[in-house]
Amino acid sequence: MSVTPCTKQARVQDVGILTTALRSFERAAAGLGLPDHLYLKLLNPSEKIETSVTPILPDGRVLEIQTFITQHSSILGPAKGGIRMTADVTHDDITGLAMEMSWKTSLIGIPFGGGKAGIRCDAESLSSDEKEIVIRSFTRGSRRHIGPELYVPAPDLGTNERDMGHIWDCISYSSGTAITNGCYVTGKPPILGGVVGRREATGKGVVYTIVAACEQLGLDPGAIRCAVQGFGNVGAVAAAELAALGAKIVAVTDLRGGVFKDDGLDIPSLTAHVVSTGSVNDFVGAEVLDQDSIFGVACDCFVPAATGSQIDAERAATIRARIVAEGANAPTTPEGDEVLDDRGLFVVPDILCNAGGVFVSYLEYTKETQREQITLSGVETRLRKRMQSAFEEVCARAQTNRTAMRQAAMEIAVSRVAEGVLSRGLWP
Ligand code: NAD
After folding, report:
1. Ligand 1 atom closest to Cα of 230?
2. How many A from CA of 272 to the centre of ligand 1?
3. pTM for this entry
4. Distance (Å, rounded) from C-alpha 74 to C-alpha 77?
């Protein structure tokens, strides 16, 4: 029998989000001097599940949809992470995102591991009835991989509260009970056991870290100019919160186009415009901005809040901001990151910047198992405190070790999961 020796070796291939996650892990592992057995334990996902479902739509069409779940780690608790529903999502993307979730939950200090799910289907092309059918098919096909002690999904790109409500219903219905026994999914509508403020939590958390970054750089958060890529759950809430502080949101793009206004866009009106038209395009009083130009907009803070691998080396060289606050997951490629670093931009890394959503998901998880009621102000106070303390911890390590914020955040996160492995023991 031949045995493959367990050694560290370059395993990175050019696969987008997964490449970014692996490179960032490898740098942290090197910085921490992780021994081989821990390196390999934390490198490899614990489980990868691929299924296909064939829902029938009301008009008789049959879809064939691939779905993916990766549990990267469950060392510190059940795998936690959102469901991405896009036409081009791959299992590699999901694996990279699941790995990032392991670091995010550990960094923000909640007892979860890292997971992620993907539904390879264009959510925007479906009516709400059709989407419900697809979500229920996914839930049925993946039912045995979802659970409070296994993998607990939440919304991500292309999915929302309503979809989480359908998942919850599908699971309680399948067991013939009124509710689920324990928390099977977070990000549900508050009427079904969700937490008030969960929908806004990621965007608000992004803004808490921007305020903290401004303090580091001696900027007044109420007087900064910002550009936001992506105007969905994360981007629109972050823009609204920044505008409420007095900041000027000068540029916003989405999948269909973009808008620019030098003296600041009226964000509540832009939000209403997007609700009624589906896009930021044609917003009265704003100039047209093509999607690529957002990277070159002169501002203090750039918030990528769309999708992965947006800031490559070329775009990183054109960013005219002092702060890059990563609302999206893995928005910066490893090459882009080097350029941002060389140029001395202050990057709030994704595992810190957008961790507010999963932190409030944890509040929902505990509420559901303990039936504890939480008020909106209670949620916001806990979210703000947790984001601030995580930011301070990362900043202190970055300053002490003279590293970038991303390296500091990753080292804290990876070392905690490694400590979890050692505390559980090495068997087998
Ligand atoms: P969403 O589907 O609500 O919104 C995405 C927005 O980005 C939309 O406005 C879309 O038009 C836009 N977009 C997509 N591709 C674009 C492109 N190439 N250029 C410009 N705009 C583009 O998704 P969301 O929940 O806001 O998630 C956004 C990002 O934040 C994702 O990377 C997601 O993984 C990450 N994230 C989300 C949460 C959460 O709680 N929703 C938590 C953590 C991280």
Report:
1. 7
2. 18
3. 0.93
4. 5
Instruction: Take residue 147 and report the two structure tokens written for it.
Output: 């659970």
CA dist 402 and 393 (Å) reads 14
Which residue has the least CA distance to atom 32 on ligand 1? 328
CATH number of the domain at 45-192, out of 3.10.290.10, 3.40.50.10860, 3.40.50.150, 3.40.50.1970?
Answer: 3.40.50.10860
**CA nearest ligand 1 atom 21, residue:** 254
Distance 232 CA to ligand 1 centre (A): 6
Q: Is 116 a catalytic residue?
A: yes
Alpha-carbon gap, residue 245 to 290, rounded angstroms: 27
Residue 320 has a CB neighbour count (10 Å cut-off) of 13
Q: What is the distance between the alpha carbons of residues 315 and 99, in angstroms, rounded to a whole number?
A: 25
CATH fold label, 199-353: Rossmann fold (3.40.50)
**pLDDT of residue 121 exceeding 60:** yes
pLDDT band at 174 (very low <50, low <70, confident <90, very high): confident
